[in-house]
């Protein structure tokens, strides 16, 4: 593909204009998009990305946006995963998830000790780094020279294509959890991913049976998430330096908005030529159809504007090193949940009008709808969990988060 | 007619938007305190109107050559929003009525001289709906008679303009007339925005000379007659894309004011029957969070729109057809987010939410009234965008916004 020939790629890595680099990656995402769309049904059936898609992503450098520069990456601005993931999700939300959510794990690893970064990226710069967000059983114990882990972790998107994985484990007797980085030979995959949406992400379980993890591949979550983790010594980009917590939660927004926009695009395309199957009327002529379309598109614009504002703020924090105040952390959580609801409601409104046509697997709107639903179950955008704490804060009530309650002041809403 | 240059401003300095926002911050407390009295007076109070003139707020869009600030399109939105937070009716006077100066600044120079020659502090009311009023050709000019509706702030106006079709044609004209040409018919008995005093102009068979009667199309297009003497973007850029945007300031401000008032009440409120602390209810918290989310999204959408509109009016960017329709859609959507945000809270304030001295219910009624405006009307502004989209001009949602 001309869009991704080697010389262009080498030229842009030398470029210091991070936003131009981001725009180039978005352009590549759109250039590859039609392929991803063609493969979307097969990807869903495969319940994991297809090998050829992974090859396309590596070749176009779409997984390197947060990878350290010293390992062939770009260390782009936070939010690059939103722009790129959103573009890919227009064509295939599962592929977008691998790009934006799993791809962003490079920033996780960039905060670990430099030695493990060299181990992962030294031999091969094309890496997909899996994680596991939930411990289903087990943990680790301290042994001489490192940790010994026996653990099953859930929700490891893209693990079929990963050479390395990184996740948190509880360590016996230790107050803190530890991040560990493990190579592929250390884990088995438990295929639990039989789901209603986002099937193509291959989000299975990783099982470690009595695996030794040397010290340099471990780091306490406390040291990892606070400002200036060990990786800060190695990488200049602010993502390896900042207090990380306020930044967590951005990555799924690109696939979410893009999946909903993909549903809307598909709906528009179908509706242009659609005639009622019973009476043959032109569906697009219906004022209520037009109204649904307009309202859904307005909701998606609102979601996008809210998210882009949040990203602009986080970029400012990244560059300035400012602390994110309690109110802002809570209102950002609220805004993400709010944007999630907008995406879901926009998509539901359209599918509700598609008639029985909307039920068929061959209808891409239907897949996008299931994908948006699946994304909306994520805890980071869970309505109850993210909305009420902001209101409690405004009302002068304890939010339950000790750090935030320490700063609680009555203020006007933002 | 030869124009003599005038000093920039009586007080020497041309006000910036930040200056004027500072003025609002100084007076906000007083305007909040007068909101109920203003509503009961069914028109702006004389002391408030005097302050709006004295502080330069009403000169926001008066041409610089007459001592005005001639600010950009985002000014009425920012000022209307800041004032709307304490009194939406007062916000309307600045953000909507004050913005009429941009319209008159597009008229031929002779008309502007008549209006502002004796001083920049003129309240210009406008009536855009003919209620039996007639406009006929008369020689070089027009003859106007009868009633035209919805002239906000009319009680304090020295000049008024009416818009309507010329009899026997579909041509629309905008006729500017001094106070001596017309009377006020008090029809403003309404459920919201009472303090704007939006009454009818009744014209007594007045002759309007050609420099004060201009085809609306000629005023709306880029480079209207006044653009030869007023060079700022508001007098030169095509007017259409900006028409509804000035409504957004008072609308957003009213929603934000309602949140402030609701919070102040709910922090302390105890259930009247059982003495429970209302703030501790999970439903109350969920509704409040959702409403603040609504208003936040509305504010960001408005700011996004104004950034683009200002850039376009300065010639730094061009507005595509899709963007123009999208912005109209967004204006309706913003108004809906704001009115739903407040409605969600009002519905659950119990009987205490009914009383006149509860500001939340006044903000709510004001919002409902403003959401009736054609510029933010749901059906009218939502459908054209959808038709454009289905029409095939663009399939890619992500290309609509800059």
Q: Tell me the strand order in the biggest sheet of chain A.
A: 1-4-5-8
Could you state the oligomeric state of the chains shown? heterodimer
How far is it from the N-terminal to the C-terminal residue of chain B, by CA?
43 Å
Query: How many alpha or pi helices of chain B?
Result: 14
CATH superfamily of the largest domain in chain B: Butyryl-CoA Dehydrogenase, subunit A, domain 3
Residue share in helix of chain B? 40-55%
What is Rg of chain A? 22 Å
Order of helices and strands of chain A, N to C? HHHHHHHEEEEEEEEHHHHHHH
End-to-end separation of chain A? 46 Å
Global mean pLDDT of chain B: 92
The CATH architecture classification of the largest domain in chain A is Up-down Bundle
**What is the name of the CATH topology of the largest domain in chain A?**
Butyryl-CoA Dehydrogenase, subunit A, domain 3
CATH superfamily heading of the largest domain in chain A = Butyryl-CoA Dehydrogenase, subunit A, domain 3
CATH class annotation of the largest domain in chain B: Mainly Alpha
Which fold name is given in CATH as the topology of the largest domain in chain B?
A: Butyryl-CoA Dehydrogenase, subunit A, domain 3
For the largest interface, the chains and their residue counts are: A-B, 50 and 46 residues
Number of domains of chain A: 3
Structural class of chain A: alpha+beta
């Amino acid at each position: 593909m001309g869009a991704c020939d080697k010389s262009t790629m080498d030229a842009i890595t030398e470029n210091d204009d991070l936003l131009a680099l981001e725009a180039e990656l978005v352009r590549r995402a759109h250039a590859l998009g039609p392929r991803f769309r063609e493969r979307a049904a097969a990807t869903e059936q495969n319940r994991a990305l297809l090998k050829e898609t992974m090859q396309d992503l590596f070749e176009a450098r779409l997984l390197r946006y947060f990878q350290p520069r010293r390992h062939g990456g770009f260390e782009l601005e936070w939010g690059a995963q939103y722009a790129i993931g959103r573009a890919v999700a227009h064509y295939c939300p599962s592929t977008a998830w691998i790009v934006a959510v799993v791809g962003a794990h490079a920033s996780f690893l960039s905060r670990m000790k430099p030695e493990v970064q060299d181990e992962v990226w030294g031999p091969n710069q094309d890496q997909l780094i899996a994680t596991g967000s939930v411990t289903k059983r087990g943990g680790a114990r301290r042994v001489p020279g490192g940790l010994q882990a026996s653990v099953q972790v859930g929700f490891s998107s893209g693990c079929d294509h990963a050479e390395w994985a990184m996740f948190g484990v509880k360590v016996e007797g230790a107050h803190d959890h530890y991040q560990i980085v493990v190579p592929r030979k250390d884990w088995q995959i438990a295929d639990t991913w039989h789901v209603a949406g986002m099937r193509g992400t291959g989000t299975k379980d990783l099982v470690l049976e009595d695996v030794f993890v040397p010290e340099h591949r471990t780091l306490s979550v406390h040291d990892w998430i606070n400002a200036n983790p060990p990786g800060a010594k190695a990488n200049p980009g602010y993502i390896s330096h900042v207090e990380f917590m306020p930044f967590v939660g951005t990555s799924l927004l690109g696939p979410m908005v893009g999946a909903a926009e993909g549903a809307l695009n598909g709906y528009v395309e179908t509706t242009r030529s659609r005639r009622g199957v019973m009476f043959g009327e032109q569906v697009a002529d219906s004022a209520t159809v037009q109204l649904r379309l307009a309202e859904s598109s307005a909701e998606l614009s609102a979601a996008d504007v809210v998210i882009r504002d949040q990203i602009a703020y986080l970029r400012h924090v990244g560059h300035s090193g400012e602390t994110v105040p309690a109110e802002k952390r809570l209102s950002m959580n609220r805004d993400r949940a709010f944007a999630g609801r907008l995406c879901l409601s926009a998509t539901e409104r359209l599918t509700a009008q598609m008639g029985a046509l909307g039920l068929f697997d061959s209808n891409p709107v239907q897949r996008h709808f299931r994908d948006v639903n699946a994304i909306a179950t994520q805890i980071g955008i869970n309505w109850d969990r993210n909305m009420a704490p902001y209101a409690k804060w405004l009302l002068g009530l304890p939010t339950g988060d000790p750090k935030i309650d320490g700063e609680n002041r009555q203020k006007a809403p933002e | 007619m030869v124009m003599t240059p005038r000093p920039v401003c009586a007080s020497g300095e041309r006000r910036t938007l930040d200056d004027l926002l500072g003025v609002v911050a100084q007076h906000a407390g007083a305007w909040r305190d007068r909101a109920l009295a203003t509503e009961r007076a069914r028109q702006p109070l004389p002391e408030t109107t005097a302050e709006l003139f004295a502080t330069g707020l009403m000169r926001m869009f008066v041409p610089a050559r007459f001592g005005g600030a001639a600010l950009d399109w985002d000014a009425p939105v920012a000022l209307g929003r800041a004032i709307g937070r304490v009194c939406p009716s007062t916000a309307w006077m600045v953000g909507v009525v004050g913005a009429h100066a941009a319209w008159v600044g597009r008229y031929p120079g002779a008309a502007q001289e008549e209006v502002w020659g004796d001083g920049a502090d003129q309240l210009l009311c406008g009536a855009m709906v003919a209620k039996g009023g007639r406009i006929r050709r008369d020689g070089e000019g027009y003859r106007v008679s009868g009633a035209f509706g919805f002239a906000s702030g009319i009680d304090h106006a020295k000049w008024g303009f009416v818009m309507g079709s010329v009899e026997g044609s579909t041509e629309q004209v905008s006729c500017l007339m001094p106070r001596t040409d017309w009377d006020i018919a008090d029809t403003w008995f309404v459920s919201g925005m009472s303090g704007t005093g939006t009454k009818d102009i009744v014209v007594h068979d007045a002759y309007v000379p050609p420099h004060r009667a201009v085809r609306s199309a000629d005023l709306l297009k880029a480079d209207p007659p006044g653009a030869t003497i007023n060079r700022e973007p508001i007098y030169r850029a095509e007017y259409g894309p900006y028409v509804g945007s000035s409504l957004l300031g008072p609308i957003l401000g009213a929603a934000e004011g309602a949140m402030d008032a609701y919070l102040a009440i709910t922090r302390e409120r105890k259930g009247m029957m059982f003495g429970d602390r209302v703030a501790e209810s999970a439903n109350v918290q969920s509704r409040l969070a959702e409403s603040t989310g609504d208003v936040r999204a509305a504010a960001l959408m408005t700011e996004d729109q104004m950034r683009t509109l200002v850039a376009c009016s300065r010639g730094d960017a061009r507005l595509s057809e899709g963007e123009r329709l999208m912005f109209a859609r967004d204006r309706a959507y913003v108004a809906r987010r704001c009115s739903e945000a407040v409605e969600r809270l009002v519905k659950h304030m119990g009987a205490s939410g009914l009383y006149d001295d509860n500001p939340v219910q006044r903000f709510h009624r004001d919002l409902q009234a403003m959401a009736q405006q054609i510029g933010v009307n749901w059906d009218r502004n939502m459908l054209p965008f959808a038709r454009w989209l289905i029409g095939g001009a663009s399939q890619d949602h992500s290309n609509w916004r800059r």
